[in-house]
């Protein structure tokens, strides 16, 4: 008789020898654990409800409009064609592409730099102007602030790109052409197994049916309407409904992709070009929501268990806050940047940190840049950090500090 025993779980669970096939499942499982635990139940339900009604619904609505508009504008390709003609205007159009919420515009410019269609100044401009998926969150929660930050990013991106053009040639640090998998090829990848495909379809169906009614409820809540009374729900009814919807969306998100490395953890999921706009909006919404939930729950849990006011504690960092925002912005991927924006929306970090992060943030575009032109990516990121430092500390000393 063997002295060792092995145990294998059913294949349909996606588990073998205790190996979790979808590591993202840790998030909804932890959320459910906090809900069933009496001590943390009320705090968790309220936090998840706020995240769903006040953030996810508006993000989904904003993303749906964006993806429908992109579908219409994508047929013309006017901006992409225009920046091929002039070194000076390349920077302007690259900054405008970077200003588009999400990472698509920035990925276009970084990949075309390698192919020789745009210069290095355009790469710096687009990486400076882009805010990645965090732009969706800021536009949905505070549209006037979001638009202001986007406009600022375009201006700073143009100025930085033109300055780089004055210092360097267009082919500065451009690598020799080799065979590489383009970002466009990567974006055409789809889920490879039936579980992921079903989860993707359910993601789209979830937001297809919830988008309009959920946005309506979110708007009523924004106008301080007592939703439980308005819909004749019991006490905490709308809060429980929001928490359930959030957990369901996180379960669907968790089953669409495994976490294999840093990039797969902090980058939005790959999407088919031919996917319906609502399908794309659903995938992006759940990705943004996951990082919002991590930020909101982390903030509340630290406050709850430590008894400390995390917002006041971070506020004591004062002059170091813009530097914190800048340093997080240097990390590739949109996940860490969504964390900073979530903390800004909750009042835990000041506008100076948000501005420094928005300008230094390169989003998912940094991953193909690192893969195809690592030296150019490193230098471009360094160049984008300089205006981020200037803007972040400029705002801090002019508005937030009592120095002036």
Automatic annotation (TrEMBL):
Record's keyword terms, sorted: Membrane, Transmembrane, Transmembrane helix
InterPro entries: ArsP_2
Transmembrane segments: 20-36, 48-69, 89-111, 118-139, 145-167, 206-225, 237-255, 287-306, 326-345, 376-398
Pfam families, per database record: ArsP_2
Domain of life: Bacteria
Protein name (database record): Arsenic efflux protein
Organism field: Vibrio agarilyticus
């Amino acid at each position: 008789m063997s002295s060792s025993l092995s145990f294998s779980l059913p294949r349909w669970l996606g588990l073998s020898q205790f190996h979790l096939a979808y590591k993202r499942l840790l998030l909804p499982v932890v959320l459910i654990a906090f809900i069933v635990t009496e001590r943390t139940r009320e705090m968790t339900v309220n936090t998840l409800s706020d995240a769903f009604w006040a953030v996810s619904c508006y993000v989904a609505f904003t993303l749906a409009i964006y993806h429908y508009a992109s579908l219409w504008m994508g047929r013309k390709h006017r901006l992409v064609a225009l920046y091929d003609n002039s070194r000076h205007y390349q920077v302007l159009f690259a900054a405008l592409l970077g200003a588009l919420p999400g990472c698509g515009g920035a990925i276009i410019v970084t990949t075309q730099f390698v192919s020789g269609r745009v210069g290095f100044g355009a790469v710096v401009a687009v990486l400076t102007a882009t805010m990645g998926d965090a732009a969706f969150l800021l536009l949905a929660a505070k549209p006037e602030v979001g638009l202001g930050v986007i406009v600022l990013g375009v201006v700073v991106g143009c100025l930085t790109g033109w300055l780089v053009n004055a210092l360097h040639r267009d082919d500065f640090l451009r690598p020799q052409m080799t065979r590489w998998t383009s970002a466009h090829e990567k974006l055409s990848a789809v889920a490879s197994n039936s579980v992921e495909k079903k989860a993707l379809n359910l993601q789209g169906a979830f937001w297809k049916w919830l988008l309009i009614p959920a946005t309506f409820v979110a708007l009523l809540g924004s106008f301080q309407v007592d939703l439980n009374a308005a819909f004749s729900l019991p006490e905490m009814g709308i809060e429980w409904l929001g928490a359930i919807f959030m957990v369901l969306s996180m379960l669907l998100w968790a089953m669409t992709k495994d976490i294999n490395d840093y990039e797969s953890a902090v980058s939005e999921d790959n999407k088919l070009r031919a996917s319906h706009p609502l399908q794309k909006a659903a995938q992006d919404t759940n990705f943004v929501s996951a990082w919002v939930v991590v930020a909101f729950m982390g903030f509340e849990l630290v406050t709850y268990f430590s008894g400390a006011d995390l917002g006041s504690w971070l506020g004591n960092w004062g002059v170091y806050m813009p530097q914190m925002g800048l340093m997080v912005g240097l990390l590739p991927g949109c996940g860490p940047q969504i964390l900073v924006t979530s903390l800004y929306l909750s009042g835990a970090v000041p506008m100076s940190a948000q501005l420094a992060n928005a300008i230094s943030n390169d989003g998912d575009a940094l991953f193909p840049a690192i893969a195809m032109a690592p030296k150019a990516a490193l230098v471009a990121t360094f160049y984008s950090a300089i205006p981020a430092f200037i803007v972040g500390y400029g705002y801090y000393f002019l508005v937030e500090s009592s120095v002036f």
